[in-house]
Task: inverse folding
């Protein structure tokens, strides 16, 4: 991990200076402003906020994977190894999405009503916020996996990569068995039942999927770099 720190700082600096992070962040903020209102049931609102993290995470991966000119990417790959350089890129994208999800979870928790869907049962705020945070991390992990599999080096043409990324993000949210769908469904079901869920199994599943996708992407970076 120590060897990755300079690469992570480099990728984070590239992301911030490029200002390409602004569109997904602004779109996410607008999505929350439209869909999350003060006084809404807390778990429903947290599920809504978490779901939107998934496509944003995939978008961040695409930004980080395409930020460097080919010559700069080749230099970094030659110095640190192409797989390690690409891993830093993917970790930076995940970190940005996770940070955005954490911030949104805090804001939504403060604005929402700590009650069930029918407003009849009061829910503990901190456990509810924790469940929302786990769901946001699940979506950030799965979005990172989608982005890793739909951008360079697997898909190089934007005409293929962007539609594939959008389709992958949608499927990750709606397909039965998806950790993201399971985590969000847990929040919605918990809100209806008046109980706070602990979506730990979806978190483990999303972590495993993200690790596998990142491993594949980094392996192909070594071969195709």
Result:
């Amino acid at each position: 991990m120590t060897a990755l720190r300079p690469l992570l700082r480099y990728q984070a600096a590239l992301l911030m200076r490029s200002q390409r992070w602004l569109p997904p962040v602004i779109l996410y903020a607008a999505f929350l402003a439209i869909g999350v209102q003060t006084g809404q049931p807390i778990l429903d609102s947290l599920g809504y906020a978490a779901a939107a993290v998934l496509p944003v995470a995939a978008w961040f991966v695409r930004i980080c994977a395409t930020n460097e000119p080919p010559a700069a990417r080749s230099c970094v790959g030659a110095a640190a190894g192409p797989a390690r350089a690409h891993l830093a890129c993917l970790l930076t994208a995940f970190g940005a999405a996770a940070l955005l999800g954490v911030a949104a979870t805090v804001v939504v928790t403060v604005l929402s009503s700590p009650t069930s869907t029918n407003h009849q049962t009061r829910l503990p705020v901190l456990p509810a916020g924790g469940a929302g945070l786990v769901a946001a991390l699940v979506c950030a992990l799965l979005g990172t996996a989608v982005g890793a599999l739909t951008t360079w080096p697997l898909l190089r043409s934007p005409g293929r990569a962007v539609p594939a990324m959008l389709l992958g993000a949608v499927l990750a949210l709606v397909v039965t068995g998806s950790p993201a769908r399971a985590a969000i469904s847990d929040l919605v079901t918990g809100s209806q039942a008046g109980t706070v869920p602990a979506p730990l199994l979806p978190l483990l599943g999303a972590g495993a999927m993200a690790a596998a996708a990142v491993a594949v992407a980094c392996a192909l970076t070594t071969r195709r770099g």
